[in-house]
Design brief:
There is one protein chain. This protein is an all-alpha fold. Helix content is 68%, strand content 0%. Helix 4 packs antiparallel against helix 5 and helix 4 runs parallel beside helix 6. The longest helix is centred in the C-terminal third of the chain and has 23 residues.
Length: 140
C-alpha cells in the first residue's frame, strides 16, 4: 500500500497538479535527498532567490556607470587584482570614451543634474586613465 502511494505521488508531481512547472517537482525531491546529501535544496533555493529578484531598472545613470566601469576594466583597472595588471586595450577604451562623449553632446540640456554630473565625472576619469595608460605611466 505504501508503494502505491509513493508511485501515485511521483506520477502526480510529474503531471504538475496545477503547480508552477519545475518548482514543485524539485522541492519535494530535494527534501527527500536532504537526508542523503543536503546540498541539492540549497542550490535550488539560491536559484529561486536569484530568479525572484527583479533586475534593477535600466536608466541613464546605470547605463553610463556600466559603460564607464567597462572602460576602466578595459584600461586595466580591475578591482582586486592590483598585482596582476592586465594589458589595456586602448582602442576599445577609446571607443567607449567616444560613445560617452557623443552621448554628452547629444543629450546636452536634456539631463538631470545627477545624470550630467555622473557623465562629466566619468568622462574626466576615463580620459585621465586613458592618457596615463597611453603614455605608459603607472596609474596614480
Amino acid at each position: 500500500m505504501a508503494e502505491e502511494e509513493k508511485g501515485f505521488v511521483i506520477r502526480d508531481r510529474r503531471v504538475g497538479g496545477g503547480e508552477p512547472s519545475g518548482g514543485s517537482a524539485t522541492e519535494p525531491a530535494g527534501a527527500e535527498a536532504a537526508g542523503a546529501g543536503g546540498a541539492r535544496p540549497r542550490r535550488s533555493e539560491q536559484a529561486d532567490q536569484a530568479q525572484a529578484k527583479p533586475p534593477p531598472p535600466v536608466d541613464f545613470l546605470s547605463f553610463v556607470y556600466s559603460m564607464g566601469t567597462s572602460a576602466l576594466m578595459i584600461l586595466g583597472e580591475t578591482p582586486g587584482q592590483a598585482a596582476a595588471d592586465p594589458a589595456p586595450n586602448l582602442v576599445h577604451a577609446q571607443e567607449i570614451i567616444d560613445i560617452l562623449t557623443m552621448l554628452e553632446s547629444k543629450t546636452k540640456g536634456n539631463l538631470t543634474k545627477d545624470e550630467e554630473t555622473l557623465l562629466e565625472e566619468m568622462l574626466y576619469t576615463l580620459r585621465v586613465k586613458f592618457v596615463e595608460r597611453a603614455s605608459g605611466r603607472k596609474p596614480a
